[in-house]
């Protein structure tokens, strides 16, 4: 683990997260033995290669978010949601680039400071979403294992402020919300939180948010884990989740930004794979072979791109496991906790 200051977070963040991938509730799936592939080289993590950008860059792009000065602050602990012997769960809010974002935070019982994790949930319709939905199992287990857990709701969800342009702008605002969550933890001044030990965990759409964070804000966190993530290519996500389901937002997106055929430069600049050379943190990817929501091929392609760039990436596959992880979930979490323990403790 290497210490980090708040200045690390000034880098930024972006990605075309899966626009429409489900990923809130985990259900059972057949058990089997996981297999893994690992990158053979680990790059230096103290610097990141610069990404050439036009000045000024399109704000709806990874270079645009790299150029932006991100802000995250004013973490406020609100009401108690639940108490257990191992932790207390609170409703919280924080500020991210001028918006108030709500969320849930579990603080372990005992003497801190504790390392912290920001959780980025998968797609859940904002119309039905409530604070903390998405990863209740992870929230509970990780807090019991001694991590402060901040589960962000994202903008337009629960009690967060609205961003009316977020969908047309490929939901890049969710990545700003995750950057803001890390920065708010780091600057909170709360004795329970060790601001120099922070990791990310995202699933499904949230996995895409994590990819963007690593690309746009190298040095922001210590390590990252994703479960059943979306494609690293935004156009592929739109085709897979929205276009075939007749989502009218697709027409709005293409009216604003053009189709991949009309404006290939735009679509290249919103893919994290275009800027993967910037990544400095280790990444662990979990994916089931029977995932019919986010195909395993997507994670294999992302892993190959990270490896080709010399990055520290590991893909663990789970034969027979579906999108939401069932019988093999606890086994996968043991791998996850060992990974975080190695990089954050």
TrEMBL record:
<feature type="signal peptide">
    <location>
        <begin position="1"/>
        <end position="28"/>
    </location>
</feature>
<dbReference type="GO" id="GO:0008236">
    <property type="term" value="F:serine-type peptidase activity"/>
</dbReference>
<dbReference type="GO" id="GO:0006508">
    <property type="term" value="P:proteolysis"/>
</dbReference>
<comment type="similarity">
    <text>Belongs to the AB hydrolase superfamily.</text>
</comment>
<feature type="compositionally biased region" description="Low complexity">
    <location>
        <begin position="26"/>
        <end position="59"/>
    </location>
</feature>
<keyword id="KW-0732">Signal</keyword>
<feature type="region of interest" description="Disordered">
    <location>
        <begin position="26"/>
        <end position="60"/>
    </location>
</feature>
<dbReference type="Pfam" id="PF00326">
    <property type="entry name" value="Peptidase_S9"/>
</dbReference>
<feature type="domain" description="Peptidase S9 prolyl oligopeptidase catalytic">
    <location>
        <begin position="138"/>
        <end position="344"/>
    </location>
</feature>
<dbReference type="InterPro" id="IPR029058">
    <property type="entry name" value="AB_hydrolase_fold"/>
</dbReference>
<protein>
    <submittedName>
        <fullName>Alpha/beta fold hydrolase</fullName>
    </submittedName>
</protein>
<dbReference type="InterPro" id="IPR001375">
    <property type="entry name" value="Peptidase_S9_cat"/>
</dbReference>
<keyword id="KW-0378">Hydrolase</keyword>
<dbReference type="InterPro" id="IPR050261">
    <property type="entry name" value="FrsA_esterase"/>
</dbReference>
<dbReference type="GO" id="GO:0052689">
    <property type="term" value="F:carboxylic ester hydrolase activity"/>
</dbReference>
């Amino acid at each position: 683990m290497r210490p980090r200051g708040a200045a690390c977070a000034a880098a930024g963040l972006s990605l075309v997260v899966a626009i429409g991938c489900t990923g809130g509730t985990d259900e059972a799936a057949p058990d089997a033995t996981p297999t893994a592939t690992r990158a053979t080289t680990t790059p230096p993590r103290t610097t990141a290669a610069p990404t050439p950008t036009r000045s000024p860059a399109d704000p709806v792009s990874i270079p645009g978010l790299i150029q932006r000065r991100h802000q995250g602050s004013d973490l406020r602990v609100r009401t108690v949601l639940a108490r257990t012997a191992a932790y207390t769960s609170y409703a919280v809010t924080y500020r991210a680039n001028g918006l108030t974002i709500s969320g849930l935070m579990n603080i372990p019982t005992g003497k801190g400071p504790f390392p912290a994790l920001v959780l980025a949930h998968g797609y859940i319709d904002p119309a039905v979403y409530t604070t903390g939905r998405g990863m209740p199992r992870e929230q509970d287990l990780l807090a019991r294992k001694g991590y402060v857990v901040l589960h962000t709701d994202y903008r337009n969800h629960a009690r967060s402020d609205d961003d009316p342009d977020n969908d047309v702008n490929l939901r890049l605002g969710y990545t700003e919300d995750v950057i803001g969550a890390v920065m708010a933890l780091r600057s909170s001044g709360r004795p329970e939180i060790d601001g120099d030990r922070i990791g990310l965990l995202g699933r499904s759409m949230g996995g895409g948010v994590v990819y963007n964070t690593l690309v746009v804000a190298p040095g922001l966190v210590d390590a990252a884990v994703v479960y059943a993530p979306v494609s690293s290519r935004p156009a592929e996500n739109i085709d897979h989740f929205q276009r075939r389901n007749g989502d009218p937002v697709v027409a709005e997106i293409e009216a604003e930004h053009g189709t991949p055929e009309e404006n290939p430069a735009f679509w290249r600049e919103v893919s994290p794979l275009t800027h993967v050379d910037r990544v400095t943190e280790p990444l662990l990817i979990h994916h089931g072979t029977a995932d019919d929501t986010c195909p395993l091929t997507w994670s294999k392609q992302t892993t190959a791109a990270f490896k080709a760039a010399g990055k520290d990436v590991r893909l663990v596959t789970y034969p027979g496991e579906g999108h939401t992880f069932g019988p093999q979930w606890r086994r996968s979490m043991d791998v996850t906790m060992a990974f975080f323990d190695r990089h954050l403790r």
